[in-house]
């Protein structure tokens, strides 16, 4: 079995500071990357910034900065966010890097060589904000302005000389791809949306611009710059050292296992990107997962609406694990979800502080007072102990399946239920009542509950990496040396070593 796994976030457009939507995509991708490492896979996790296009050029001019200098500053804020969010990415790519230029120009050359690019004139509606072209039936008029129905962004009529990609020629091949691979686009509702769009008939795609200069020049025609999406999408192979197809990283990790994207850029990833790759005679990615939007006041966050929620400020006030957990627990992956500070508070208090945090606190404090601060060796386990542990152990393969199908919400729901069960087990077993009359039974109970805390912590580590690492360290375990196999292993503990110092994992938020 191929044990390589390549996952990407969208590369972010740094025309402003990072917002919650950026954080959400990154956190989701990080969770899947961490989980695959636990599963024993060699993982390559990529994120980065998309830095070309008219929108960036105009923003730079507005700020009286050279576009590259403007991008350097903003890209740094996205790079800093990877650390703040505790992302485990292997690489951070920028489309202003030399390795990317080389890759994009090679893709262009291959599309020309295949006869899929021709020169003509573009006439149509274009959104600078979305860097996207729209058909007549995709726009409407509001307050005397033409806008995109899907994004709400202003569109302008554009007429200019342009190179075109023969997208129309790839309709049947794309439909064959979607129908022969049920999981190529997830969730299914997104796949159906894409199929309907392609079935209506695809038009050839304008893939160059002459009205601005901030981009990668078309080979042999410097008057044109390459369309920002053909440029941006190529980042996924630039990071693997394409065009060197014999490079170890390209050999190991392409095609990508999954592109995690927002639903608003589904068309680019599920139609344009596979068409470009097919024309260039390169393998297409295995999956594109389009998640919903994180809403603020029930609207998509955007700079123009002034409703951007700053993830960095929320992390300062509540904590990084708290934000990570809340976003993936409360928002159904694939659907839109509204951020509420009240719901965040409830989630922290109920799931993290009162449940998982309280369980660890109670158990470790009891061991410190009653067992010389060491996890006891197990004596004979009762049937109730075996049943309690096996409920989680025997469900591990199902949990793996859920994560591999990006069913993150069901995964979390099940794992959190194990934490509630563990609190109940501890209450019902009453180790404090066994201390005098049956100390051996007390020791078995404590071993069992520590074993379950270990297992729950392994499963939660992709979601709340900071807290789970602390818990495992308290028990003298190292998450970097643990895997899903250790859920079946009951010999991880050093029973002669004292537990490390315990601090409060999650402070309750006063309402």
CATH class of the largest domain: Alpha Beta
Within the CATH hierarchy, at the fold level, what is the topology of the largest domain?
Rossmann fold
Tell me the structural class: alpha/beta
Shape: elongated
Can you count the helices? Answer: 19
Strand content: 15-25%
CATH H level of the largest domain: which superfamily?
HUPs
Give the strand tally. Answer: 18
> What separation lies between the terminal Cα atoms?
50 Å
Oligomer: single chain
- CATH hierarchy: architecture of the largest domain: 3-Layer(aba) Sandwich
Give average pLDDT, whole number.
93
**Radius of gyration over C-alpha positions, nearest whole angstrom:** 26 Å
Largest sheet descriptor:
6 strands, parallel
Number of domains: 2
Residue runs with pLDDT of under 50 for 5 or more positions:
none
Q: Looking across the biggest beta sheet, what order are the strands in?
A: 3-2-1-14-15-9
Share of helical residues: 40-55%
Write the layout of secondary structure elements.
Layout: E1 4-8, H1 20-38, E2 42-49, H2 54-62, H3 67-84, E3 91-94, H4 98-113, E4 117-127, E5 132-134, E6 139-142, E7 145-148, E8 156-165, H5 171-180, E9 185-186, H6 188-199, E10 205-206, E11 208-209, E12 217-218, E13 221-226, H7 228-233, H8 235-238, H9 248-253, E14 258-262, H10 266-279, E15 288-291, E16 294-296, E17 299-300, H11 311-318, H12 320-330, E18 337-338, H13 341-370, H14 383-393, H15 396-404, H16 408-429, H17 431-437, H18 439-460, H19 465-474
Parallel strand pairs: 1-2, 1-14, 2-3, 9-15, 14-15, 16-18
Antiparallel strand pairs: 4-5, 4-8, 6-7, 8-10, 11-13, 12-13, 16-17
């Amino acid at each position: 079995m191929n044990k390589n796994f390549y996952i990407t976030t969208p590369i972010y457009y740094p025309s402003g500071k990072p917002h919650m939507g950026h954080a959400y995509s990154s956190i989701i991708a990080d969770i899947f990357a961490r989980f695959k490492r636990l599963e024993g896979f060699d993982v390559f996790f990529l994120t980065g910034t998309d830095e070309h296009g008219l929108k960036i050029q105009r923003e730079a001019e507005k700020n009286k900065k050279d576009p590259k200098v403007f991008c350097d500053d903003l890209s740094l804020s996205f790079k800093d966010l990877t650390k703040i969010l505790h992302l485990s990415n292997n690489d951070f790519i920028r489309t202003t890097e030399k390795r990317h230029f080389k890759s994009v120009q090679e893709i262009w050359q291959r599309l020309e060589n295949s006869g899929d690019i021709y020169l003509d004139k573009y006439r149509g509606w274009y959104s600078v904000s979305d860097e996207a072209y729209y058909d007549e039936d995709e726009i409407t008029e509001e307050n005397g302005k033409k806008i995109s129905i899907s994004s709400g962004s202003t569109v302008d009529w554009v007429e200019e000389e342009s190179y075109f990609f023969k997208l129309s020629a790839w309709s049947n091949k794309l439909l064959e791809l979607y129908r022969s691979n049920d999981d190529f686009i997830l969730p299914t509702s997104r796949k159906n949306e894409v199929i309907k769009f392609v079935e209506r008939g695809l038009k050839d795609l304008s893939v160059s611009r002459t009205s601005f200069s901030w981009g990668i020049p078309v080979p042999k025609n410097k008057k044109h710059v390459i369309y920002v999406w053909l440029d941006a999408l190529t980042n996924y192979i630039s990071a693997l050292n394409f065009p060197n197809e014999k490079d170890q990283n390209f050999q190991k990790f392409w095609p990508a296992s999954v592109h995690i994207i927002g639903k608003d850029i589904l068309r680019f990833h599920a139609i344009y990107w596979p068409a470009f790759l097919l024309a260039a005679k390169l393998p297409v990615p295995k999956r594109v997962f389009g998640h919903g939007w994180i809403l603020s006041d029930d609207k998509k966050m955007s700079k123009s609406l002034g409703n951007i929620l700053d993830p960095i400020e929320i992390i300062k006030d509540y904590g990084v694990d708290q934000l990570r957990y809340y976003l993936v627990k409360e928002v159904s992956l694939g659907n839109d979800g509204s951020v509420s500070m009240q719901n965040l508070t409830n989630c922290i208090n109920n799931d993290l502080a009162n449940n998982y945090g309280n369980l660890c606190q109670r158990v470790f404090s009891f061991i410190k007072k009653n067992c010389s601060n060491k996890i006891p060796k197990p004596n004979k386990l009762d049937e109730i102990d075996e049943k309690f542990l096996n409920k989680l152990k025997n469900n591990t393969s199902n949990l793996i399946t859920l994560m591999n199908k990006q069913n993150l919400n069901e995964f979390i729901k099940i794992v959190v239920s194990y934490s509630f069960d563990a609190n109940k087990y501890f209450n019902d077993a009453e180790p404090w009542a066994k201390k005098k009359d049956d100390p051996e039974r007390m020791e078995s109970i404590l071993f069992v509950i520590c074993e379950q805390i270990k297992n729950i912590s392994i499963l939660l580590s992709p979601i709340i990496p900071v807290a789970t690492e602390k818990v495992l360290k308290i028990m003298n375990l190292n998450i970097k040396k643990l895997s899903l196999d250790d859920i079946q292993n009951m010999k991880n503990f050093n029973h002669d070593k004292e537990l490390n110092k315990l601090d409060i994992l999650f402070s309750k938020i006063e309402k």
